[in-house]
Amino acid sequence: MKDTRASVELPDADATTRLGEAFARVLGPGSVLLLSGPIGAGKTHFARSVIRALLGPETEVPSPTFTLVQTYDHTGGDIWHADLYRLSTPDEVVELGLEAAFAEAICLVEWPDRLGELTPDHALHLEFGYDGDGRRVTFSPADHPLLQELRP
Known about the structure:
Oligomer: single chain
Largest sheet: 7 strands, mixed
Number of helices: 5
Structural class: alpha/beta
CATH class: Alpha Beta
Distance between the termini: 27 Å
Order of helices and strands: EHEHEEHHEEEH
CATH topology: Rossmann fold
CATH architecture: 3-Layer(aba) Sandwich
Strand content: 25-35%
Strand order of the largest sheet: 1-7-6-2-5-4-3
Number of strands: 7
Radius of gyration: 14 Å
Number of domains: 1
C-alpha cells in the first residue's frame, strides 16, 4: 500500500512561521487545512502565521478557543480560523456555518476530529506532533494539490 503521508521537521517556532507563510502563498477560496495534534504542538502558531502572512504582520489573531470561530476579511476571500475543541457533536459545526465556509473561504480548523462526517473530502490534513525539542508536521494526502503548489 502506498504511503499517503509526507512530513517535515519544524526545529523551532520560526520554522513553523515559515511554513505558515509558504502556505499563505498557495491558499485561496475553498482551501481547507485541518490542524490536528496535542495541545502545544504548534497548531495555533501555524494558523496565526498563515493569517498574518495574508493580512499583515501586525494583525491581531486571537485564539478561537472560546469564540470557536474567528473570521477575517481578505481580498482573496474570507479567512475562517476555527477551534472545535469544545464541541461535542458535528451538529454544532453546522450551527457555526463552517460547512458553507469550506466551499467559499480559506479555512484553518483546529481539532478537526469534531467534524465527523462533515470533514470535507478536499481538505489537507496537517498532524502536528513533538519531535525531540522541535515539532514535526505530517501531511495527508501527500499528493494534495496544495502540497504540489508548495514544491518548486
